[in-house]
């Protein structure tokens, strides 16, 4: 029941913040998939590759349809560049041991959504997850709900960054 409520809230937030446009189906797929992946990550500390790739592919395809429908092909390049840049940034972080591969895979989806909406949204999608994750970790540590060294999934913070990027685009 919580999952259905969360999904409804995510859809409502995207449509309310962004309005209904040709890109709305892509944003809704990204939001719903992101919510589901965040819940999975919270429960099992893992982002399944097949689901991440499916969500990213579906979102990319819907962005292409949106760009073709609106005649704005430049946004496809922006989304692709955003996805590639954020994936590369997360990959470099993962090389240092600071991030799991599932987070790197999910970065492509975040980068595409941020890139679709422009540079400011991309920066929000890129940086906000780290701030949200740090704040959540500090809050959980202060309230003694999580011990030092206990892992905290990064996927939910990534979703927060993606939703904020959509909000900044409005």
TrEMBL record:
Keywords: Membrane, Transmembrane, Transmembrane helix. GO terms for cellular component: membrane. Pfam families: Peptidase_A24. InterPro entries: Prepilin_IV_endopep_pep. Residues 29-130 form the Prepilin type IV endopeptidase peptidase domain. The chain crosses the membrane at residues 12-39, 51-69, 76-100, 120-140, 152-169. It comes from the Bacteria. One of its GO terms (molecular function) is aspartic-type endopeptidase activity. This is Prepilin type IV endopeptidase peptidase domain-containing protein. It comes from Parafrankia soli.
